[in-house]
Amino acid sequence: MAVEQIGQAALASMRIDKWLWTARFYKTRSLAAQAVAAGHVKLAGHTVKAARELRPGDELEIGVGDTVWKIVVRGLNEQRRPAVEAQRLYEETVESHQRRAAQQEARRLAPAPGSDLRGRPTKKARRLIRGFTDNC
């Protein structure tokens, strides 16, 4: 599956932090660089620096939060494009996709405690909290 370059010649290589940003794994390039520096991104099983050149065919392991993606780079693009186009820049491995689906299903079946709470406590909830903490 070849990725078409829009209005420019095909790129041979690109900085890994810039590719992570264009492929929409991170919202900003600086967040991508921080993740690479923290060791959340591995190229062929080894930690790398943000300036490392990435080429099509390289295998990446990317940690975003508690989710780990194993992908193969399929294309490079100089600009950040819509999500549909960004997904064409990589191909996720089958085992990675299955693992992420299992994690997502586990989160759906057993949500984190308090995840249904939104915003500030109500007046009744504040009274209960105060009553609990004052009696201790």
Summarize the helices and strands and which ones pair or pack.
Elements: E1 14-15, H1 16-22, H2 29-37, E2 41-43, E3 46-47, E4 53-54, E5 59-64, E6 67-73, H3 83-86, E7 90-92, H4 94-109, H5 123-134
Antiparallel strand pairs: 1-4, 2-3, 2-5, 5-6, 6-7
Helix pairs in contact: 1-2
What does it look like?
By secondary structure, the protein is an alpha+beta fold. Helices cover 35% and strands 18% of the residues. It contains 5 helices and 7 strands, in the order E-H-H-E-E-E-E-E-H-E-H-H. The strands form 2 sheets. A 5-stranded antiparallel beta sheet has the order 3-2-5-6-7. The protein has a two-stranded antiparallel sheet with strand order 1-4. A hairpin with a 2-residue loop joins strand 5 (59-64) and strand 6. Helix 1 crosses helix 2 (29-37). It is elongated. Mean pLDDT is 84; it is low at 1-9.
The main pleated sheet reads as: 5 strands, antiparallel
Q: Please state the average pLDDT score.
A: 84
The secondary structure category is alpha+beta
The helix-strand sequence is EHHEEEEEHEHH
Shape: elongated
Please give the radius of gyration in angstroms: 21 Å
- Major sheet: arrangement of strands: 3-2-5-6-7
- Strand proportion, as a percent range, falls in 15-25%
How many individual β-strands?
7
Head-to-tail CA distance between termini: 64 Å
Note the total helix count: 5
| Low-confidence runs of at least 5 consecutive residues | 1-9
Q: In percent, how helical is the residue content? A: 25-40%
